[in-house]
Design a protein that fits this description.
By secondary structure, the protein is of the alpha+beta class. It has eight helices and four strands.
Amino acid sequence: MSDNHQYSQRRPQYLYTIISVAAVLFLLGFFGLLLLQSQQLSKILKEQVDIIVELVPESSDEERTFFIRQLDNSPFSLTGTVKYTPKEEALILMSDDLGEDLLNLDLPNPLYDIFTFNVKAKYLAPDSLDAIRTVLTRSSIVSDVYYQESLVDQLGRNIKKISWVLLSISILFVLLALTVIHNTIRLALYSKRFLIKTQELVGATWEFISRPFLRKAIWHGFLSALLAIGFLVIIQFWIQEQLPEIKSLQQPFAFVSLFIGLIILGILINWVSTFFAVRKYLKLREDELY
């Protein structure tokens, strides 16, 4: 009867610990998902900035074809984004944008034949773009190279600010998570303090006393991480149903790495917190247990 009563008392305490740790890991993992997807979103935004290459009027079809092949195979160009727009088509597009029929003004076309392309995210920096401009203008058929410098600078500054803010919040959140989990486990072991001290008094070594608690800590940390991961997967699927376009931001390898990290973190924090909590009660004198 007494064993059943003790078991019924232990079970809610351990269940509370598992759920509490799972809740903290879930919040930490959810923030990790946001961080991963914000980085991917930043990469997508960078790779949508157009680089415009104006061609000299005398360029031939063969020269343009060769230039396209070179540009498409360059290390900085995003594959499949090179597009040729003749000046006649550009004039039509400008007419549509301005709402005026420029073709009937009987004026010479002031525009150039152009190539547009996008660069890989790591090259979207002022120094890299200046180097790309220098390389491209060496071609005999290139008149000049343009890009929205203000947009590039503003995008770079905003991404840097957001990255610092997210990094600061993540560090603060990890510290808070460690504190909450440690206190939760310490309180869960509070009811075991007399059992821990009694085993020491009858001659058991600290390692022998700690071993069963540490084994349970590993198992409970693993269960907490699995519970957190389960809810994260549900949340991720729900977000994808509400925002289908977010599927393009998915990084399966990064998600798996995050989930493995949560499992390792859950086990490690549980083990370390349990280790120090047990040692704390072992160091107390009998009168300090009350």
